[in-house]
Amino acid sequence: MSEQRSYSKWPGTNKFYFDGRIMMGPDGKRAIITFFLIFIPAIVFISQPAVYFIQEYNNPAAFLTHLFLTFLSLLFLARVSLKNPGFIPKQWPPFAIGPYGAKPVEEIIREAFNPKEIPLESNLTRLKYCSTCNIIRPPRCSHCSDCGVCVEKFDHHCPWVGNCVAKRNYRDFIGFLTTTSLVCCCTLGWTAYHIADVSIKNNETGIKAFAEALPNTGASIALLIYSFIAIWFVVGMCSFHTYLLCTGQTTYEKLKGAFDNPVGNPYYRSNCWENFVWFFKNPLAPEHFNLREKVEDTSTIYHSHSKEAMMNSPKECNEPISPSEIRSFKISTPSDSL
Question: So which residues are the signal peptide here (predicted)?
């Protein structure tokens, strides 16, 4: 019986690199495009506007601030793209098949469950069964059609980072939006100041001043236009997710209108500030699996012996397994799900 790393048995559409040490979404390479959309403008900014402020005013503030914010933005981008957002592995056969021809475990769970509501704060939350993953979804869990698995506290699948944004990487996503918004604002302000300062020193006004300044501010003009376009999208996204934090919602819940009224939202704290404090102090949830763990390749054994086992098994072995004998999945508490 051969041994393999557990990532080779992963039932989703994720991509793995360096022998399972890095896991990305199926569209993870899009994060590389996002990287260059941030990195290239940063190089252009340093090469002209930042150098101008150092040479003319002996002031490295623009250079150092922009470099620091760009570094943080790219760091958060890497963390969002490479971190497991909270995947729950599928319970697929042969692992979900009962012994000696008994009912599949997922079938017994579905019959015993079908469906249940649990109290969260002062509300009842319905737990749903995922027929694709063969699991009972914890509160706020949803199935991602892009990654092909269920994700805890699912917010959305972001094509810009090539990964799901959910329970375990949402804080990094907020950090990415915040720092990228600051990069856009700083770039817009400093390039505008650079163009205006060069125009004033040329002692010209209007179109003539722009034409005179163009040879020395071409990069700043391009960055000014680029950052002006980008700022609407990035700052808009940052503002939207700030609103979601204030109201204790996810993007998925907002689009469904699940908690439009804060009174009926069990994840809304007493006020906006409490939501922020709880969000940032809540410890990072552990992963449900180890992708580097060595596992046995049981697929060939299952296919060759399952039929024989079903035919030769004693009668009592064919009796259904009671729900109490099934190891239940740990349901997240309200604090875990937030």
Answer: none
If we measure between CA atoms, which residue out of 11, 15, 279, 13 comes closest to residue 155?
279
Counted residue by residue, the chain has a size of 338
Task: Report cis status (omega within 30 of 0) of the bond before 94.
Answer: yes
Catalytic residues: 158
Q: Which residues of 100-118 are buried (b: 16+ CB within 10 A; e: fewer)?
A: bebebbbbbbeeeeeeeee
Q: Give how far Cα 246 sits from Cα of 68, 167, 262, 283, Å.
A: 28, 16, 10, 19
Listing DSSP states for 99-147 in one string gives GGGPPPHHHHHHHHHSSEEEEETTEEEEE-EETTTTEEPPTT-EEETTT
DSSP line for 196-207: HHHHHHTT--HH
Ranges of each domain in the chain: 3-337
> What is the C-alpha end-to-end distance of the chain, expressed in Å?
42
Report the C-alpha gap between 288 and 87 in whole angstroms. 8
Q: What is the DSSP letter of 6?
A: G
Pairing of strands 22-24, 123-127: unpaired
What is the per-residue pLDDT across 223-281, written as a single tens digit (0 to 9) for each?
Answer: 999 999 999 999 999 999 999 998 888 999 898 887 777 677 788 887 888 888 888 88
Give pLDDT tens digits for 24-61: 889 888 999 999 999 999 999 999 899 999 998 999 99
Q: What is the distance between the alpha carbons of residues 154 and 176, in angstroms, rounded to a whole number?
A: 18
CB 279 within 8 A of CB 245: yes
Phi then psi for residue 51, to 5 deg, are -65, -35
Return d(Cα 216, Cα 48) in angstroms, integer.
Answer: 9
Q: How far apart are CA 85 and CA 152, in angstroms?
A: 8
pTM for the model stands at: 0.79
According to DSSP, residue 282 is labeled S
Task: Using alpha carbons, list the distances in angstroms from residue 162 to 32, 42, 157, 255, 257.
Answer: 9, 22, 8, 21, 26
* φ, ψ of residue 176 in degrees (nearest 5): -65, -45
Q: What is the DSSP-derived secondary structure letter of residue 259?
A: T
